[in-house]
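To fix ideas, we reproduce below a protein record of this kind.
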Amino acid sequence: MIKNAFKENYYGKIIMFIGGLLVVPLLVLPFYPEEIKYAPSFIMSALFCLALGMMTGMIPRSQLAKNLPFFKKSADFQNNKNPQHQKGSLYVLLIWCYGFLIGSVPFIISGLLEPIHALFESVSGWTTTGLTVTDVTALPRIFLFYRSFMQFCGGLGFVMAVVAFMTGKQSASLYDAENHLDRLMPNLRQTGRIIFLIYSGFLAWGILFYRIFGMELFDAVCHAMTALSTAGHTTRINSIGDYSSFPIEIITIILMLIGASNFAVLLLLTKGKIRKIFKITEIRFMLGLLVVFIPLFAVSLAVGMNMGVGESLRNALFGVVSAFSTTGFYNMDFFTMPPFALGLLFLLIIIGGGAGSTAGGIKLSRTYYIIRITRENIRKRLSPHNRVITPEYNTVRGKASIDESLIADTFGFVACYVGVFIIGSLLLTLTEGCSLFDAMFEFAAALGTVGISNGIINADTGNATLIVQMVGMTLGRLEIYVVFAAAYSGVLRLRGTA
């Protein structure tokens, strides 16, 4: 009976799965036994998830629908043309919000952070943002590992991690609703597992090469997890710059580029199909951006900061990749840079990484569509024959057209992104009393899930500012539409219970 209940109601499985993730940081204790006093913070959180998951899993879904508003269907919801996507979006948002809340509990139980600050650290971790209100020099090793591990799991996404180990139609619905574009195998469970294996394989290589070039094992594990997930949490006060090592910077750049690439591209990479990779439009566009932005950035550093050619190119390479991959690692202080270089970083943060990757931002593909559409519109107006041209681009699966539907989706998303960005920036000027540019940079970092701060986010930041940033991070990680669809679905369901 219990087994059948769990088969029907998968919410309990997900809750227990998230609880299982909370015990992983305990693996640090054999290496740092003096931190055993923090073990109860994780054990108690995991036990709560286990108990809640078991109770939830044994309740039939029909019973949940009778008693909980979010599981009911209003008449409006039933008559909606696309209820399944909205339903999936709502459940995805609820799963992430539960992860945010339970992820903050170890910080609270241990007494390290106040509740809002703990929630901020959890949201920043799971969304792979990397903004922090902690002092990493004073944080226990188990919590440094926990922050990095949250980002590693957040890069996969809760649903991606769940479908790697679970089956069922519900998993497919949640997978689509979380906006994944990467069904690499016919079977969804196989897709989840192959992505997990690819991700873990690159993690192992990253740790190995970090160790070879002198990084301590603990730091190597933490930085490999956060570089691969384009997240940015670090164990050092000056991030990667603390090591003053060009080989370590190159390893980090490679991991960030891997993390900023679509999982389907990574599958081709593991199969050695390099030529096919370089035919993909998004990859070619990414390389084109690097070719343009790195020299511009280097010239700005050389002129504005009197750097040598080698030093400026080194800092430009690292800074550009860190910004467009939305990782947020740094090897020099961003805010000592000339305004032109800072403006380039700002633009790269807005653009972001590859579609279906762990990176945030508008995404490379959408930026490319906008440029192509704009170019074709200009050509059409300059052409005496007013030719109608349908641009094409190369994907992993072959050629595709930038048709009217794709154009509408692209401009609709960008309009939403810009609207959210403007509102969030204005709110920060109210909550923090900062300049408009500082607010724009800070909120762009949250919305783009980038761990770069101009100093607004720190241990003394007010709760209102942290809440605005948390909303931005959530919208950025779940690509806005998922949150909007979830909110609309939730309103319809609550209306049905009024």
Summary: The two ends are 33 Å apart (CA to CA). The chain has a mean pLDDT of 84. Residues 50 and 164 are 20 Å apart (CA to CA).
